[in-house]
Amino acid sequence: MRKTIIFIATMVLLCSCVDEEQYADTPRGNFEALWRILDEHYCFFSYKNEQYGLDWNAVYDKYSPQFNNEMTEKQMFEVMANMLSELRDGHVNIYSTFDVARNWSWHENYPRNFSDSLLRIYMGTDYMIASGIKYRTLDDNIGYMRYESFTRSIGDGNLDAVLSDLATCNGLIIDIRNNSGGSLATAEKLAARFTNKEILVGYMQHKIGRGHDDFSKMEEQRLKPSAGIRWQKPVVVLTNRQVYSAANEFVKYMKCCPQVKIVGDKTGGGAGMPFSSELPCGWSVRFSACPMYDRDKESTEFGIEPDHKVQLNDADFSKGKDTIIEFARNLLKK
Q1: DSSP character at residue 95
Q2: Closest by alpha carbon to 52, among 223, 225, 254, 302?
Q3: CB–CB of 244/269 below 8 Å?
């Protein structure tokens, strides 16, 4: 049976809870609980073993000797954070009262390919704002939309107004660089404006057992066209490494839409729907539990390649030009 993408939860917030057996509220007990939660519910063990040799049992052997009951809270937190970094997953976190354990290597180790100062040149001060979208028409009659975060929801009326205002433009740039995610429903709502028919955009699985590969069958993710105004001209989506989670999914959807090209850097990834649990000490743990795939059944956990890889260069920057935006403008003119 075909399934339409309808997500209520967000990709950056906790969206479900997992009940766990009881462990002692000691450094050793908290370590055992954390390792077991991930061992039974995390969804990318096999994939990451293939990609870079992750061995979760070896991770246990590496970090177990570092836990003892004389540790302070902060020492326990630090070792746990180091252990979770082995997963290389931006959706894996520990939330304590004093810090959040996170792994941001998906963008920290790469060029930023975005400049606030350059964006101000292109946007000026007289741009329009519709909920989470800033937009204007550039001087070559190319429409430009800037969507900074899918945590900022947008209504159908807003989208109708934006697309109506840009309707006379020859093409459209959607700039989601630095968009680290938010609501999947928002990403879907925007993408639905760029297809005139229902299309297959990917697949999802659910964890159904405690084994590393205990998953449901792949369920189709299908994108239905919006009932509102739909864009019929060429589109370029701008990406960089900080495009993550729901924004990564948006890129996945848009790659399936007609007349759309992706320009910029590879996205950061984040293709696991996050769930949550709790340690004996009360700290919350978030982790990827439901894997999502593109329409070719390939994981996008480590990002999506653009159709045209373009990076900012110093020569353009010194002239007040954004190399990626300029490439997109030239592509749309062709």
Answers
A1: E
A2: 302
A3: yes
Q: How far apart are CA 141 and CA 329, in angstroms?
A: 10
CA dihedral 124, 127, 129, 135 (to 10 degrees): -100
> End-to-end CA distance of the chain, in Å?
40
Distances (CA, A) of 199 to 218, 219, 252, 307: 16, 14, 12, 20
* Residue the block writes with tokens 């009881």: 22
CA distance 74 to 76: 5
Using alpha carbons only, how large is the chain's radius of gyration in Å? Answer: 21
Look at the pTM and tell me if it is higher than 0.90.
yes
The answer to whether 322 and 312 are in contact (CB under 8 A) is yes
**Alpha carbon distance 130, 240 (integer Å):** 23
Burial 58-82 (b: 16+ CB within 10 A, else e): ebbeebeebbeeebeeeebbebbbe
The tokens 């004093």 sit on which residue? 98
Question: Bridge partners of 143?
Answer: 137, 172
pLDDT in tens, the chain (334 residues): 333 433 333 444 334 455 446 899 999 999 999 999 999 999 999 999 999 999 999 999 999 999 999 999 999 999 999 999 999 999 999 999 999 999 999 999 899 999 999 999 999 999 999 999 999 999 999 999 999 999 988 999 999 999 999 999 999 999 999 999 999 999 999 999 999 999 999 999 999 999 999 999 999 999 999 999 999 999 999 999 999 999 999 999 999 999 999 999 999 999 999 999 999 999 999 999 999 999 999 999 999 999 999 999 999 999 999 999 999 999 999 8
Distance in angstroms (rounded) separating the CA atoms of residues 227 and 220: 21
Cα 32 to chain centroid, rounded: 29
Residue 83: half-sphere exposure toward Cβ, Cα within 13 Å: 28
Give the Cα-Cα-Cα angle 181, 39, 65 (nearest 5 degrees): 110
